[in-house]
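Board notes (copied after class):
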Amino acid sequence: MPGISVVIITLNEEANIQRCLNSAKEIADEFVVVDSFSTDRTVAICESYGCRVFLREFSGYGSQKQFAVDQAVNDWVLSIDADEIISPQLREELQAFTKTVFPDDVDVHGYYIPFVLNYMGNTLRHCGTGMNLRLFNRKTCRFTSVPVHESVEITGKPKKLKGRLIHYSYKDLSHHFEKINRYTSLAADGYRKRKKKYKRFWVAMKFPITFFIYYFIRLGILDGYQGYLWSFFAGVYASIKIAKSIELNEVAFDTKQEYISQNSEIFLNIQPSN
């Protein structure tokens, strides 16, 4: 019977971590927590639950989560965020999994788990839903190393579970702004490192396109006021991410040009070798 190692990365998650651990304690064979030197009670709370806690400087979401996975004792890993909880239906599915491997699933190396976002006191059942690979065999799956919006790469066959993770990602609008600022900076730096560039017109185009997708195609309009805000900020996030990417590339170009200008005499006096 497979045991499940629940892995979590944290930084000052005192307000969320206990709720997360309580939701997962019935299915976790162990908790592995990788903390980026929290200054609140996060580590103390985790230790009180018997978690194996590792302190590590934050190196990007993908690499930080992969480090957590590498510390797990069990082959099967459930990766959840500190601001997520396991729904009762998902808990039942995971308990069934720990008692016996699902029939006919011997070739399955990972399971997609749907999620729903609780935003400003309202569950976004339309524009705040999705699905990620969260339960997987660490021998055949691993996180991508991108700095933000990481995913799990799987070698083998995936399946889907029905129960959901519930995500409490934003305390209020100010917290949402803070996350937008941080995540767009990380995403833009990731684009720069991968040498992915955008034209300036995409800053203007990305907002209406993204808003339309979330509010009308993904039916955020049915999620009320919170659905409108979520769709609006999704568009803001998309535009700012591209604007920051352009800014990084232009700063890098200006810096290069300034260096060449300051050293022009050196470059001009270089003679080709025979």
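Comment from the instructor: The helical segments are 17-24, 42-48, 61-70, 88-99, 173-193, 201-217, 224-262, 264-268. The two ends are 71 Å apart (CA to CA).
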